[in-house]
Amino acid sequence: MDTIFFILSKVVQFGIEPLNWALLFILLSVLFLALRKTHLVKRFLLLGLIDLLVVGYLPTSELPLRVLEDLVPKSPLTSIAGEQIGAIVILGGAVEGGLIGPERGEVSLEGSAERVTKGLELMRTHPNTPFIYSGFSGKLVPRGISEADAFRALVHEQGLEGHPGYYENQSRNTYENVLFIKQILKQIHGENEAIKPVLLITSASHMYRSIQFFEKQEMAVIPVPVDYQTGTSVSSVHWGVFDLTEGSRLWNRLLHELIGLAAYWVTGKL
After folding, report:
1. 18, 98, 193, 220: most buried, per Cβ within 10 A?
2. What is the pLDDT of residues 21-36, one digit of tens each?
3. Bridge-based pairing state of the strands 87-91 and 131-134
4. What Å distances lie between residue 19 and 30, 61, 109, 138, 174, CA to CA?
């Protein structure tokens, strides 16, 4: 069932890409043009134009994304002692697995690289606290090594191979991340012992959804949101900017989280 859900999520992921909507509207316009339904041609062309205008005008995505990113504030890490932390948890989505990295002898970081840089920073700050990097691949047909195994290579590059750590290389989405992380935490603390709060590192837009999963599994979280896409001031909003590439990226991130929350709620996973 989880595999079916994963496959369906990838289909939905294609469907929520805003620029794909514009393409669909244009294709429908061409279809109705062939059928000589000129009134429908005009309607779908207008919808395509509206879609492009909404996607490209950056405040339409920046403002709601800012609300999502601000749902979970940063934790005051300086006041948290190492013995209070069960583990440093880094959710996947920031390291490029696959074939290219191993073939080239490099570890490539993706757009959410702050998850990794913050994780390495906290590993150095808390040298005795175990870390967990969780992630196999979000691709429908993965090839090569997992994200977690790529992160293992990065840890070695950074000279931190002596740091206690766990590499969870089976999960394909956030729901599976949390289930496998819980199993590892039980190994760390003991099957019948209480699990200490974990420092959770993930993108700010993804933090709210992630915390819902951890709380559903009765695990406490100290949130460490990173990878912010929006600022905090009025002046940081790009009021006069039209950019289809950036707007599409921000809309995709926003819709991915909102639809993900709805889908997991409907299926009883939240």
Report:
1. 18
2. 999 999 999 999 999 9
3. parallel
4. 17, 14, 25, 21, 25
